[in-house]
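Protein modeling request. Please complete all fields; requests missing the sequence field cannot be processed.
Requester role: graduate student
Desired output: 3D structure, C-alpha cell encoding
Chains: 1
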Amino acid sequence: MITQVARRSLLRSFTLRRYGSGSIKISDFSTTKKGTGAGPFVELPEFKQLQDSLLIKLPSSCTVYGNLDKISAITSDGLENGKPFLAQDYDSTRGLSMVTTGDHAANVLVASYTPLSNVVVLEMDNYEEGFCVPNFSQEALCFSGDLHLDNTGHLRGHGVVALAGQGPVYQMILKKGESIVVAVESLLAHDKNIQLQLTKLNSSFSIPQRINDWLLKNASDVYEKLLIQWIRLFSKDKIYYEIQGPGIVLLQTNFVPGSKTYSRAELLKVSQ
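Delivered output (272 residues):
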C-alpha cells in the first residue's frame, strides 16, 4: 500500500504502454500535473521516457518508490514561493528509494539503470484479477499508487508500475484456445487469466531407460532424490512453460537458460 485511494466502482484491468527512444519538449517537462495523489479523486503519476532517463510527473501529495537515486533535474510550481516541494528518502523495509511531493506537483528526471527499450509501463485499476509479476522486487523500476502484492507475485489495485526486463520486452496476446511454449526465464509478467503449466522437451530431458530401470531396481528408496538431482544437473534448462490463453504475456528477450530455481514439487511434476 503506497497511497490510499477510494475503491473504484468501475474496474478496468490495465493499460500497457511502451516507449521508443526520442526527445521531449521543454514545455512537457515544465508543465506539472494539476491533481493530487491523495483523496477520493486521486491522480496517478505519469512515467515518460527521455532516451536513457525516465521523466516522472508527480501530482501533489504523491509518493513514488523505486531505483530513484540518480535525479538529474527537477521542476515544480513550488519553486516560485521557495517552499519545500519534494522529499527524497530511503525505505529500508522495501530496500528502495522514495520521492514524495508536498503541496505542489513536481516533475523529476531520473537516470535509468537499464535501457528504456527494456521498460514497459502497467497502468492498473483492478482490485480483483490484477497482473502477475513473479519477480516484482527485482523487475520493478518504479511504482506508485494503492497497490497490493502477495507472496506469489499477484499484483492488484490502482496504480502505475514501470517494469524493467532483461532485454527488450514484447507483448503477446493469446486468444481463447491458443497456447505457446516459452522458456521459463523469458516470462516477465502475465495477466491473471493466463494459465501456466511446466513442461519439458522429451527428446533431451528423460533419464536413459537403462539408468532409470537400474535405479528403480537397486535404489528405489532414494529414486526420487536421484531423479531430482538428475534434473537439476542435466535438464533444468530444458524445462518450459506451456501458456494457455486467453490473456496477455510479457516476454523478455535477454535471459540465462536454466537460471531459474525450481521447487522439489515442481521438478517431480515435470518429470512425470
